[in-house]
Amino acid sequence: MGIEFPYRLYLVVSQESCAGRSIIEVAEQAIAGGVDIVQLREKNIPTEVFVERAMLLKDVLDKHNVPLIINDNLEVAMKVGALGIHVGNNDTPPTGIRATWGAPHCLGYSIEYLEQLQTDQTKASDYLGVSPVFSTATKTDTVTEWGLGGLARIRALTDKPLVAIGSINVDNAFEVVRAGADCLAVVSAICQAQDPAKAAEGLRNEIEKAL
Ligand SMILES: Cc1ncc(COP(=O)(O)OP(=O)(O)O)c(N)n1
Ligand SMILES: Cc1nc(C(=O)O)sc1CCOP(=O)(O)O
Ligand SMILES: [Mg+2]
């Protein structure tokens, strides 16, 4: 609550998503191209390994003054001193995170149903993930494909910063921002690109044009 969220291009990264390259390599190139916030999203690895990976990534992000968000795992977020955490409806709820993690941290929360906008969980969050704007092969256990119309509807109902996620790429980035997103979050458009810096730069240019 109350934490600034001035970010525009959000890289969501895991070892698996990086097409054989290291997370560090992809993240550094993405930052060179205009990514200004990074989430480490590792599923099904032991917490100790998640912590190790997060520490290595945070060291590099710190050098570039780019904040780290941890997906799902509060223990990891706290241990590595991340800026924040992103949670969804199957995770520790935002109010629970606030109760455990005292100091102001950045809390992202996925919006899958319009009704969520009226809840204490949304109130407790600093930004909302519009989950997903377009369905994606990267995450298939989703509920509502919001589309541009759904995103615009959410925009009209909340002043919280909106992070659009799901099949965002250089061809739709402009219209997604115009529909109401403050920030675009991507996995494949950067992590699968042959040149992550160039891919990030292309997305960033579209964002800046749309603002
Ligand atoms: C920026 C952003 N938005 C949405 C999500 C999805 O979170 P969640 O619904 O908890 O699903 P998982 O990522 O945990 O599979 C996200 N991670 N980041
Ligand atoms: C991590 C994540 N969360 C989503 C949601 O809808 O909440 S979609 C997603 C993956 C987005 O990957 P890509 O950019 O490759 O489509
Ligand atoms: Mg989650």
TrEMBL record:
Its EC number is 2.5.1.3. Keywords: Magnesium, Metal-binding, Thiamine biosynthesis, Transferase. It is an enzyme of class 2 (transferase). InterPro entries: Aldolase_TIM, ThiamineP_synth_sf, ThiamineP_synth_TenI, TMP_synthase. Mg(2+) binds at D72, D91. 2-[(2R,5Z)-2-carboxy-4-methylthiazol-5(2H)-ylidene]ethyl phosphate binds at T136, A137, T138, V187, S188. It catalyses: 2-(2-carboxy-4-methylthiazol-5-yl)ethyl phosphate + 4-amino-2-methyl-5-(diphosphooxymethyl)pyrimidine + 2 H(+) = thiamine phosphate + CO2 + diphosphate; 2-[(2R,5Z)-2-carboxy-4-methylthiazol-5(2H)-ylidene]ethyl phosphate + 4-amino-2-methyl-5-(diphosphooxymethyl)pyrimidine + 2 H(+) = thiamine phosphate + CO2 + diphosphate; 4-methyl-5-(2-phosphooxyethyl)-thiazole + 4-amino-2-methyl-5-(diphosphooxymethyl)pyrimidine + H(+) = thiamine phosphate + diphosphate. Pathway: Cofactor biosynthesis; thiamine diphosphate biosynthesis; thiamine phosphate from 4-amino-2-methyl-5-diphosphomethylpyrimidine and 4-methyl-5-(2-phosphoethyl)-thiazole: step 1/1. GO terms for cellular component: cytoplasm. Its cofactor is Mg(2+). One of its GO terms (biological process) is thiamine biosynthetic process. Residues 9-190 form the Thiamine phosphate synthase/TenI domain. Binds 1 Mg(2+) ion per subunit. 4-amino-2-methyl-5-(diphosphooxymethyl)pyrimidine binds at Q39, L40, R41, E42, K43, N71, S110, K139. One of its GO terms (molecular function) is thiamine-phosphate diphosphorylase activity. Condenses 4-methyl-5-(beta-hydroxyethyl)thiazole monophosphate (THZ-P) and 2-methyl-4-amino-5-hydroxymethyl pyrimidine pyrophosphate (HMP-PP) to form thiamine monophosphate (TMP). Belongs to the thiamine-phosphate synthase family. HAMAP family: TMP_synthase. This is Thiamine-phosphate synthase. It comes from Pseudozobellia thermophila. The gene is thiE.
